[in-house]
Amino acid sequence: xxxxxxxxxxxxxxLRQDFAASLVVxxxxxxxxxxxxxASGVPAELGLVTGIVGGxxxxxxRGSSLQVSGPAAGMSVLVYEAVKEFGLPxxxxxxxAAGLLQVxxxxxRMGRYFRAxxxxxxxxxxxxxxxxxIAGQLYPALAAKAPGSGxxxxxxxxxxxxxxxxxxxxxxxxxxxxxxIAVLLLWKHVPAKVRTVPGPVAAVGxxxxxxxxxxxxxxxxxxxxxxxxxxxxxxxxxxELADAGxxxxxxxxxxxxxxxxxxxxxxxDRLHSGPRTRYDQELLAQGVGNTxxxxxxxxPMTAVIVRSAANVxxxxxxxxxxxxxxVWLLLFAALLPxxxxxxxxxxxxxxxxxxxxxxxxxxxxAALWREHRGEALVLSVTAVAIVAVSMFEGVxxxxxxxxxxxxxxxxxxxxxxxxxxTGPVDARLSGNATFLRLPKLLDSLESLPQDRPVRLxxxxxxxxxxxxxxxxxxWAERHSAxxxxxxxxxxxx
Length: 493
Fold this sequence. Notes:
Elements: H1 3-11, H2 15-39, H3 44-56, E1 69-70, H4 73-86, H5 88-107, H6 119-141, H7 150-155, H8 157-164, H9 168-186, H10 199-214, H11 226-229, H12 244-269, H13 279-295, E2 302-303, H14 305-313, H15 320-335, H16 345-359, H17 362-371, H18 373-388, H19 391-410, E3 413-418, E4 425-433, H20 438-446, E5 454-464, H21 466-480, E6 488-490
Parallel strand pairs: 4-5, 5-6
Antiparallel strand pairs: 1-2, 3-4
Helix pairs in contact: 2-3, 2-4, 2-10, 2-14, 2-15, 2-16, 3-13, 3-15, 4-5, 4-6, 4-12, 5-12, 5-13, 6-16, 6-18, 6-19, 9-10, 9-16, 12-13, 12-14, 17-18, 18-19, 20-21
C-alpha cells in the first residue's frame, strides 16, 4: 500500500462503508425527491435540488452524523397549500424566512426545547399529514384532480372511485399505483440478493418498464430542466412576508420542519451506537439548508427518517455517506434529467401513499388507548384537526389540548374528612389546588355539615392558585355565616 493510500485510510477510515451506503441512500432518495415535488405541485427538479442541498450543505454540518435531509412527504401537504394560495415565487421567500428562523433558534440553543413537545402531538401531526397525503395521492392514482381541502379530498374519494369505474385510463392508472404499492409491501420477502436494490427503486422501476413496454395511457413527470426550474425568489416577493397568511405559513414551516427533524434525530440515535445528536447544532444545520433552499426557490427540507434509516442499515459510519448521496443526486440532475420524463405519476403516487400510511400509527394508537387514553385523545384530535382545518391550526389545537391535559393531571387534589359525629369536622387538602378541580372541591366542601365547626388544613397543598384561594375564603365566609363557629384554616406550608 502506498503512502498516499495510508494517508487516505487514516483520514477516511470508513470510506468504503460510507461510499456503499451513499449509493443506497441515493437510490432511496431519488424517487422520493421526485414524488414529493410532484405531490407539492412544483417542478420535479426542485425536489432534487432540495435533496442535493440536504446532502452537500446540511450533510457537511455538525449535528446528527447519520441523519439524511431532503424534501419530506410530511411537508408536501403544507407546501401544496402554500403554492396554491401564494404562488411558486413566494415559496422561496417562505422557505428562506423559515430557514433564517431555524438558524436563529439554533444559535439561541432552542433545539433542545423541541424535545419538550408532547410526543402525542407530533405523532398526531404526522398522522394527520399521512391521512391527507394518502387521500390527496389517490386522485393522481385515479387520473383525477384533487380537491383543495383535506376534508374535501376525503369526502370526494367515493365519487372519484365511482367515476373511475367507467374510465379505462383511470383504471389503468389505479392498477399501476396498486402494483407499485404491492411491490413495496412484498419487497421484504424477496431473496436477500435481490433486496440489494431498494424497494422504492424497484417499485418505480418496474412500473416505468411496464408503462413503457405496454404503452399504458398514464401521466408521466413533466421535465423542465434545472435551469428552467431553479428560480430564486424575486425581491418583490419578500414584501409578501408582511401578510398574515404568509407569516403564519412561515411559522408553520419552521415549527413542523424543526420538530420533524429533531424527532427524526432521536429515532435515528436509537438505530446506532455512534455519536449522539447535538440538537442545537442540528437545528442550525437544518436552518442553513433551508436558507439555501429558499435562495434557490426549492422545497423546504427536513430530516427524513426513511432515508436516515436506510443510511444506518446500509452500514454508514460517518457523515461522508450523506454528503456523497448529495453528489450522486447532483450528477443525476445534471447528466440524466430526461430520465424523469419516463416516471409514471401513478407510481410516484403509490410511493407517497405507502409513505403516508407509515405516518398513521394504527397499532400504536390502539396500545396507547389501552394504557394512556389522554395521550391517545391528544393524538387523535390533532390528526382530525389537521384534516378538518389545516396543518398550522391543527398543531396549535393539539398543543393546546396537551397543555390542558398536563394541567389537569398536575392539578391532582385529595380531600380527607374526619367526622366523629360530634364536635368539629376535620378536613385536610393535599396535592395541587387549581381552578380545574374547583367545581368538585366546592361540591365536597359544601356537603359538610352546616351546623358544625370545620377545621380546614391546607398544609398538605403543594400549590394553591388564586382562584382556589378566593373560592375557599368565600366558602368559609358562607359556612360561618349560618351561626356556627368560624371556619379555621391552616395556611399552606
